[in-house]
Amino acid sequence: HPEIPGMAYGFIENSVNGYRVLEHGGDTGLFHTGLYLIPQEQVGVYLSYNALGSAPARWYVFQAFMDRYFPEETPSQVVPRPITPGTEGNYVGYFHSTRSNFTMLEAWIRLAQTLTVGVDEDGYLLLSAGGTTARYGEIAPGLFQEVDDSGKIAVKYQDGRLVEIYPSGPASFVRTAWNESLPFVSGLLICAFIFMLITLIGWIVQLFKKKRPAPRRSFGLPKTVGVLFSLFFFTLIILFIGTVTDFHPDLGAPKMFVQTPPALGTIITFAKVLSVLSGLMLISLISAWVKHKGTIWQRIHYTIFTGLGAGVVWLLWNFNFLK
Asked: 111, 97 in Cβ contact below 8 A?
């Protein structure tokens, strides 16, 4: 969109207080830098921080620098307006950056970088990410501006529904499919964890009860496979959480920022084991229904169990733990 700053050769265009700014940031897990050039004034500012979470500081300092030395001479008179009443459902949803990893294990990080789009009671768009929220109103077809700032975004619609968001810079945001959104992924994992944990506890309790009739005993093989799947699934979850929350004592940042996690190989191995066990569960389920093993309720319960297991394996495949 002509109103949105674009890309130069290696630099990102921006408009700050009415001045054309060429900028570029540099980031690792621990370092955050920013180089800002104002060609028409022959002025440049370079900022660098070596602290986790310090990325916003560079922009705050540069904005304060601009407000002090190059204030906006003719503030924009454009007043952002709310969207058309009744169209809120066309905007609300989850989006992810096109500047993401889609083919390697880091693909899961997209879940932690979700951009959420909502609409407030006054009809203004709310874009939330990283703990911050910006409020936007429409100023032209397909063009929005922050209500309390000059930042702009362009948008793309498909059949009247918001599908892409274009801020300034090297990335755009595209609508996330429902089955890859953070609520769905987290919901599936939580449901699978709770369902399998309760099931495992129930099966353990049954071991201490009196002997069951033959039809129930014939359900032993599906249970065995289910128990193995649950144990590997629980262990994988624990290993993954332990990996992403293992902080370096001196740097105050996850160790995965500076070295390959020691548990990564084990996590990948467990993911592959789960895929094999999921296949065995499916075979056991088909056999149980065909041969009428156990009670009807046991088969229904195991069908749900197998479905959740297949969902977990699909997530592992979709986020490249099995590729």
From this structure: no
Give the burial class of 38: count Cβ atoms within 10 A of its Cβ; 0-12 exposed, 13-18 middle, 19 or more buried.
buried
Alpha-carbon distance of 299 to 15, in angstroms, equals 63
In one-letter notation, the amino acid at residue 21 is V
Closest CA to 55 of 25, 98, 35, 16: 25
Of 183, 149, 119, the C-alpha closest to 59 is 149
pTM for this predicted structure: 0.83
AA identity, residue 134: A
Give per-residue pLDDT as tens, 31-61: 899 999 999 999 999 999 988 778 889 999 9
Reference 313, options 265, 268, 275; nearest CA is 275
What is the helix (H) or strand (E) element at residue 95, kind and residue range?
A: strand 93-97
What would the two tokens of residue 215 be?
């039809």
Find out whether 316 and 285 touch, Cβ atoms under 8 Å: no
Q: Any idea what DSSP says for residue 169? A: S
In the structure, what pLDDT confidence band is assigned to residue 301 with cuts at 50, 70 and 90? very high
User: Helix, strand, or coil here: 129?
Assistant: strand
The answer to whether 182 and 94 are in contact (CB under 8 A) is: yes
Compute the C-alpha angle 217/218/221, nearest 5°.
Answer: 105
Rounded distance, CA 124 to CA 129, Å?
16
Structural contact between residues 320 and 104, judged by C-beta atoms closer than 8 angstroms: yes
